[in-house]
Amino acid sequence: MSAPKILVVDDQPINVQLLKRKLEREGIEVLTAYSGLEALDQVVEHKPDLILLDVMMPEMDGIEVCQRLQGTEETRSIPVIFITARSSKEGKLEGLGVGAVDYITKPIDLDETMARVQTQLRFVAINREMADLTRRLAEARRAATIGAVTQGIAHNLNNLLGVVIGYLDLIKAYYDKPEQVKRNAAQVEEAVHRIVTIIKQLSSLVIKTRPPLGKCSLRALLDGGVQRYRQDYRHENPITIDNPLGDLTIDSNTEVFEEVLAKVLINAWESYDAPSTQTRPITVRTQRITRPDEGDAVEIFVEDRGRGLNPEIRDHMFEPFISSKNTVGVGMGLTIARHALRGLGGDVSLVDHSGGGACAILVHPIERKARRLLQDA
Prior knowledge:
There is one protein chain. Helices cover 47% and strands 19% of the residues. By secondary structure, the chain is of the alpha/beta class. It folds into two domains: 5-108, Rossmann fold; 211-377, Heat Shock Protein 90, CATH 3.30.565. A five-stranded parallel beta sheet has the order 2-1-3-4-5, sandwiched between helices. Strands 7-9-10-12-11 form a five-stranded mixed beta sheet. Helix 2 (36-46) packs parallel to helix 3 (62-70), helix 6 (178-206) runs parallel beside helix 9 (333-343) and helix 8 (254-270) runs antiparallel to helix 9. The radius of gyration is 31 Å and the shape is elongated. Keywords: DNA-binding, Phosphoprotein, Transcription, Transcription regulation, Two-component regulatory system. Its EC number is 2.7.13.3. This is histidine kinase. GO terms for molecular function: DNA binding; phosphorelay sensor kinase activity.
């Protein structure tokens, strides 16, 4: 492990030399500067772990140096201990107010200084360990997600290709029976459609650009999402829209929003165990909410009366290829829906419905300035 690196800044050379000698005896690498500008140059070049900074210096004092360090992302995290002749509470608060983590009062007590330095170096080490752990955890999550997606794609595509090959064999076996050929060809077409859908879903997960936003009517977005659902999935089950917010204008992307709502609606439709010929009612209702520090948003509830959430997969509903249905070609509908809505600054969650079934809750910010843009793991 390399020795910690500390920058000592003071316009008085004797103070610099005293601190340098004490720190080097403790195995610490010491950089020195005798002015504010020189200190900033040293920080850029050497990236010290900690800075001991005199407050009272000509041309650029320690307060301004600290403010400049706080104003840059690369140097903001470097802890600064002020060395000050001010013993008043106001003077100390001023230093802490501009970002310093501690202060030392002149005349300098070297043992006290060393104790404060060691404390801050321990914090630096802990922060680095936490940052490294966070990075490794993010990498592990990405690797796990990639593994799950890859495994899911391979499993689903292999199953669907098996379906295609099976029905093609039937077509060849019964080539002289037109009606049976027609039925088998329809099954081949459906399997190919599912393959194409999986590929499209995967492409939408890879795209990282933020969709452009515009002023949209909530009523039009809801109607468009229902129409998209009916076109894409060819279901005519009753969908009740309870939208007291009417034509409320929100900053959204029509294409993305309609895709999200369509995917959530098909998830609600598939929650029913009843045959497809039986009614599968779904209700869509809205309300306006205020989120602390995030501004106003719209909550959209998509409610069904199906079988509810499966406890065995409750915590994994938004992972790729997770489903309680034994269906060939299960894709990434909810994964895509959450990913897309987060790109608009919102989110999707699933909860049990109090009257039976499940409820998907879509949260969408109303104004662009209130967007909360989230990262996928």
